[in-house]
């Protein structure tokens, strides 16, 4: 056997400790994967939720619709015919259906529920369109304008396209922060840091070993996430996706420094876990790891922009699914490395060898 | 092989507490030196300052010309440290602990097997450190300190929290450690341990050295009488009091105890009277020295 360098031997020792700890392995790999399956697998079709409408009696705009038009309509709509208006209205009130349509003479009447305003608006929009088409057909002149809709993304940004980079960002943040905080505190509590201090190695090699292990873990997480999302949920990567590697490296450094700071402050392992959770979980929510923040209020978006994970997520989305090139990672990289530098510096100031 | 250690006027203060209060001693190459004292006496603080883990408030520590606080690799390669807590890499096996420490000193992993053999842990080589018993952990911890064959070895309460069997077992191992000329410094609060292992012992309390000498000299200096105990049937109390050199005679539950400063003539007299039934002779122990110097009041 060959003699390992001190740095390599510390890395191997850390990595073995990590792999052999089933709990840590679960929280940093299996747990985020569960979320990927949840968000990616189960909610995939939610974006195209269908509208259920009940038709009571004759409604000429629907009945006279050509078969082809009905079928196209059918993709987003199901129209069910019922006899009783009262029963249909009750179902609408209960939230089982999204609209009730009847006709009084030349008047098409839409009943809707204010409980789900989005669907109510969709139902109204659809029927106002139908009425327009019927009116125009009644004048017997060919339509002058035609509306064509085209989506910007080739297949549309399917759910999995969004959740894979975002959840990966969260997973990397979690394992880097937890790994560093726990490692530091448990080695300090059991006296190993003091022991290492008396070995003829530079003190920085302990930190360098941690950085090395966390980088390997982050790349492993990326491989598992991307592999699984591609194989099972149809993730389509854009050509620049390998740029996630430098992004993840910079992100790992930023979250490591958060963990180091937590580890420097905490006295016990329990305290370190709590502190890392306290930082990483809210950060994941505010950085859009679980859902997009496009609709969030401005003040929330400002907070979000102060968090490193937000920029990692943004950068990864850009290069993995939005087909953006190297220029998209420049700003996120600068911000992430800046975080690493500042927080790492503070952590080094607060660092203690023993309890 | 073997380095000398000089400690001069060492003072460590934490706020108003003087944990170490002007301690001086020297340790010769190849010597087995003990710091003996009750818990909180300042012996661990003293040891850690000598190791280079703490910076002295005042005073000087010198190991073969090096100041240990300055963390120089040349010195660190020459000292081995076994810390009070068992400081291991989590979830690594006994062999992996040793080969990892070996690599930190630029030594190949084959050294691990030699050490496992030496400390009798060959059968436990593949077990994670968490599964080892207290005594096995201590032996592994000492093996980790010996991985680079250091000239100076520091042992901080190596037998604390061990049962009597494991403790004696470990003493047998520790006894040979300075044979090759290695200097060993040990802290302990077990008198018997210091008496068995150490060439010289410093008795420390309240951050000061109270006595410093070989265990034998310390006991001699204490000037406690030799105690000779016999079966009650062997000799009458009045007869015993009339023996040459008898200072005090007491009757206890199962024996008659005679104290004397001249055990030779007294024992000869007893032998001539054929009154040796149940004979046991004991002189003072380091414990007597310790208690006479540190006081007997109970300390939590």
Based on the model shown, name its key terms:
heterodimer, A: 355 residues, alpha/beta, abc type-2 transporter like fold, 2 domains, four-stranded mixed β-sheet, 14 helices, 65% helix, B: 300 residues, Rossmann fold, six-stranded mixed β-sheet, four-stranded antiparallel β-sheet, 11 helices, 32% helix
How is this structure best summarized?
Chain A is an alpha/beta fold. Helices cover 65% and strands 6% of the residues of chain A.
Low-confidence stretches of chain B: none
> What gross morphology of chain A would you assign?
elongated
Q: What is the share of helical residues of chain B?
A: 25-40%
Distance separating the two termini of chain B: 41 Å
Topology-level CATH name of the largest domain in chain B: Rossmann fold
Number of strands of chain B: 13
Briefly, what CATH class of the largest domain in chain B? Alpha Beta
As a whole number of angstroms, the C-alpha radius of gyration of chain B is 23 Å
For the report, how would you describe the main beta sheet of chain B?
6 strands, mixed
Strand content of chain B: 25-35%
The computed structural class of chain B is alpha/beta
Tally of DSSP helical segments of chain B: 11
Order of strands across the main sheet of chain A:
2-1-3-4
Residue-averaged pLDDT of chain A, rounded? 86
Low-confidence stretches of chain A: none
Written overview of the protein:
The complex is a heterodimer of chains A (355) and B (300). Chain A is of the alpha/beta class. Chain A has 14 helices and 4 strands. Chain A folds into 2 domains: 228 residues, no CATH class; 101 residues, abc type-2 transporter like domain (abc type-2 transporter like fold), CATH 3.40.1710.10. Chain A is elongated, with a radius of gyration of 28 Å. The relative contact order of chain A is 0.12. Chain B has 2 domains: 211 residues, P-loop containing nucleotide triphosphate hydrolases (Rossmann fold), CATH 3.40.50; 57 residues. Helices cover 32% and strands 26% of the residues of chain B. In chain B, the strands form 3 sheets. Chain B has a 6-stranded mixed beta sheet with strand order 5-6-7-3-8-9, sandwiched between helices. A 4-stranded antiparallel beta sheet of chain B has the order 11-12-10-13. In chain B, strands 2-1-4 form a 3-stranded antiparallel beta sheet, covered by helices on one side. In chain B, a hairpin with a 2-residue loop joins strand 8 and strand 9. In chain B, helix 3 crosses helix 4 and helix 8 crosses helix 11. At the A-B interface, helix 1 and helix 8 of A face helix 2 and helix 3 of B.
């Amino acid at each position: 056997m060959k003699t390992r360098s001190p740095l390599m031997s510390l890395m191997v020792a850390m990595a073995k400790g990590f792999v052999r700890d089933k709990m840590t392995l679960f929280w940093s790999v299996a747990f985020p994967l569960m979320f990927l399956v949840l968000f990616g697998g189960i909610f995939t079709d939610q974006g195209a939720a269908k509208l259920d409408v009940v038709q009571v009696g004759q409604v000429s705009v629907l009945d006279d619709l050509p078969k082809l038009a009905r079928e196209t309509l059918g993709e987003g709509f199901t129209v069910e015919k019922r006899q009783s208006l009262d029963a249909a209205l009750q179902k609408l009130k209960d939230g089982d259906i999204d609209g009730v349509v009847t006709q009084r003479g030349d008047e098409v009447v839409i009943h809707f529920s204010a409980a789900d305003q989005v669907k109510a608006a969709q139902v109204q929009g659809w029927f106002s369109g139908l009425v327009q088409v019927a009116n125009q057909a009644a004048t017997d002149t060919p339509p002058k304008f035609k509306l064509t809709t085209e989506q910007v993304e080739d297949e549309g940004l399917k759910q999995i396209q969004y959740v894979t980079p975002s959840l990966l960002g969260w997973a990397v943040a979690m394992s880097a922060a937890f790994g560093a905080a726990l490692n530091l505190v448990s080695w300090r509590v059991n006296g190993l840091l003091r022991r290492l201090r008396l070995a003829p190695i530079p003190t920085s090699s302990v930190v360098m070993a941690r950085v090395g292990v966390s980088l390997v873990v982050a790349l492993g997480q990326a491989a598992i996430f991307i592999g699984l999302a591609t194989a099972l949920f149809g993730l389509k990567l854009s050509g620049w996706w390998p740029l996630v590697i430098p992004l993840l490296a910079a992100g790992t450094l930023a979250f490591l420094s958060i963990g180091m700071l937590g580890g420097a402050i905490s006295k016990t392992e329990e305290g370190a876990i709590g502190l890392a959770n306290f930082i990483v979980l809210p950060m994941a929510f505010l950085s859009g790891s679980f859902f997009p923040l496009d609709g969030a209020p401005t003040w929330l978006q400002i907070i979000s922009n102060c968090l490193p994970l937000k920029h990692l997520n943004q950068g990864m989305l850009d290069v993995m699914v939005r087909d953006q090139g190297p220029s998209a990672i420049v700003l996120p990289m600068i911000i992430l490395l800046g975080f690493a530098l500042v927080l790492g510096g503070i952590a080094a100031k607060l660092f203690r060898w023993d309890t | 092989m073997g380095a000398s250690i000089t400690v001069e006027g060492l003072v460590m203060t934490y706020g108003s507490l003087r944990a170490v209060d002007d301690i001086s001693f020297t340790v010769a190459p190849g010597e087995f030196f003990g710091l003996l004292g009750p818990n909180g006496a300042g012996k661990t603080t003293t040891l850690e300052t000598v190791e280079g883990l703490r910076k002295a408030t005042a005073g000087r520590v010198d190991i073969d010309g090096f100041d240990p606080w300055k963390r120089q690799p040349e010195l660190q390669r020459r000292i081995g440290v076994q810390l009070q807590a068992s400081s291991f890499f989590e979830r690594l096996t006994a062999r992996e602990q040793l080969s990892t420490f070996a690599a930190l000193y630029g030594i190949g992993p084959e050294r691990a097997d030699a050490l496992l053999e030496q400390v009798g842990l060959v059968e436990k080589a593949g077990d994670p450190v968490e599964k080892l018993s207290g005594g096995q952990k201590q032996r592994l911890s000492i093996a980790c300190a010996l991985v680079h064959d250091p000239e100076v070895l520091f042992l901080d309460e190596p037998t604390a929290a061990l049962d009597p069997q494991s403790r004696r077992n470990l003493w047998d191992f520790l006894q040979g450690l300075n044979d090759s000329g290695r200097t060993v410094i040990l802290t302990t609060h077990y008198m018997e341990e210091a008496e068995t292992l150490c060439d010289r012992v410093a008795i420390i309390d309240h951050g000061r050295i109270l006595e410093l000498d070989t265990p034998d000299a310390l006991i001699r200096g204490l000037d406690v009488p030799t105690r000779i105990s016999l079966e009650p049937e062997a000799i009458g109390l009045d007869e015993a009091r009339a023996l040459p050199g008898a200072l005090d005679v007491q009757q206890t539950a199962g024996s008659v105890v005679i104290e004397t400063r001249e055990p030779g003539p007294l024992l000869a007299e007893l032998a001539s009277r054929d009154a040796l039934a149940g004979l046991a002779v004991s002189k003072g122990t380091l414990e007597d020295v310790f208690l006479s110097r540190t006081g007997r009041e109970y300390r939590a």
